[in-house]
Specification:
Blueprint: E1 12-15, H1 21-32, E2 36-41, H2 44-53, E3 61-65, H3 71-85, E4 90-93, H4 109-136, E5 141-145, H5 158-178, E6 184-190, H6 196-209, H7 213-222, H8 232-243, E7 254-257
Parallel strand pairs: 1-2, 1-4, 2-3, 4-5, 5-6, 6-7
Pfam families: adh_short_C2
Protein name: SDR family oxidoreductase
InterPro entries: NAD(P)-bd_dom_sf (IPR036291), Sc_DH/Rdtase_CS (IPR020904), SDR (IPR050259), SDR_fam (IPR002347)
Length: about 260
C-alpha cells in the first residue's frame, strides 16, 4: 500500500491532561513521530504510568504534574517544557472535565464555574504562557480539544456545552490574533469517544433521565449515522495532521471527528 509522508516541523510539544485517554494517545503518536513532549496531569499515578508507557518512543518525555485550573501550574508546564527542550512549537490543550449532569436549575454556581474554570480557563492559561514561545517557533501550533457539544445542545449538560462553545470562540479569535506570526490555532470537536469517560457520561445520562443504561448507550451510538463511537486514535491522528506541514494554511477551524454525528 502506498504511504504518504506527514512531515511535522515542530519538534517540541506540551499537552495538558495527558496521563490517560485521549491525551496519552496524542502524546504517544507525537513521541512516536520523534517529537519531544511535556505531559501534564493532575493525577500523579496516571502521569507516572504515562511516562513509563511512553519511555520507549523516539521522542523525549517530560512529566509535569499540575492542576489545569491553576494558572501557575499551566505556566509551569510551558516553562519546564521550554527549559528541557529549548523552546516550544506545539501546544495541545486537551484538558476537560464532564461537569454535572442535571437540569440547569439544579446546577450550583460552583459546579458551573468549576467546569468553565477547567475546560476553558485551563486552555487560556496554558496558551497565554505558550504564546511568546510559539511566536518564536518556525512552526507554531495550538490545538484545542473542544466537542460537538460546543455546536449543538446536550441535555442536562449546560456547563460542559457552554465551556466547549467557549473553546470554539477562543480558537477562532486566537487564530486571527496569531496569524501574523504564522501560528495556527485550531480546535478538534470529538463526538462520543470510546473509553471510560463516555461510559461515565452514559451512566449519568441514564440516571438523570431515569432510563436503562443500555437504552442510553444505544441512543448515543445511534446518534451517529455510522453507528459507532470515535476511537482515541482518531483524535490523535487529527492532531498529528494539524501539526504537520500539510496543514500549515489551516487555522481558525473547528474540525469534527464524530462519525458524522455533527456535520457543521
Amino acid at each position: 500500500m502506498p504511504q504518504a509522508e506527514l512531515p511535522i516541523d515542530g519538534e517540541r510539544a506540551a499537552i495538558s491532561a495527558a496521563g490517560t485517554g485521549i491525551g496519552r494517545e496524542i502524546a504517544r503518536q507525537l513521541t512516536a513521530s520523534g517529537v519531544d513532549v511535556a505531559v501534564n496531569d493532575i493525577d500523579a499515578d496516571a502521569l507516572s504510568e504515562a511516562e513509563t508507557a511512553l519511555a520507549e518512543t523516539p521522542g523525549d518525555v517530560l512529566a509535569v504534574q499540575g492542576d489545569a485550573s491553576e494558572p501557575d501550574d499551566m505556566a509551569a508546564l510551558v516553562d519546564r517544557a521550554v527549559d528541557r527542550f529549548g523552546g516550544l512549537d506545539i501546544l495541545v490543550n486537551n484538558v476537560g472535565i464532564a461537569g454535572p449532569t442535571k437540569p440547569c436549575e439544579e446546577v450550583s454556581h460552583d459546579e458551573f464555574m468549576r467546569t468553565l474554570e477547567v475546560n476553558l480557563g485551563g486552555q487560556f492559561s496554558a496558551t497565554k504562557a505558550a504564546i511568546p514561545h510559539l511566536k518564536a517557533s518556525d512552526a507554531g501550533r495550538v490545538i484545542n480539544l473542544a466537542s460537538i457539544s460546543g455546536k449543538r445542545p446536550l441535555e442536562h449538560r449546560t456547563p460542559y456545552a457552554t465551556a466547549k462553545m467557549g473553546v470554539v470562540g477562543f480558537t477562532r479569535t486566537l487564530a486571527l490574533e496569531l496569524a501574523p506570526h504564522d501560528v495556527t490555532v485550531n480546535a478538534i470537536c470529538p463526538g462520543s469517544v470510546e473509553g471510560d469517560r463516555i461510559e461515565a457520561v452514559i451512566e449519568n445520562q441514564a440516571r438523570s433521565r431515569d432510563i436503562p443504561y443500555e437504552e442510553a448507550r444505544r441512543e448515543m451510538v445511534e446518534a451517529s449515522p455510522m453507528e459507532t463511537f470515535v476511537q482515541q486514535s482518531d483524535i490523535a491522528d487529527t492532531v498529528l495532521f494539524l501539526c504537520s506541514r500539510r496543514a500549515e494554511h489551516i487555522t481558525g477551524q473547528d474540525l469534527n471527528v464524530s462519525s458524522g454525528q455533527v456535520m457543521y
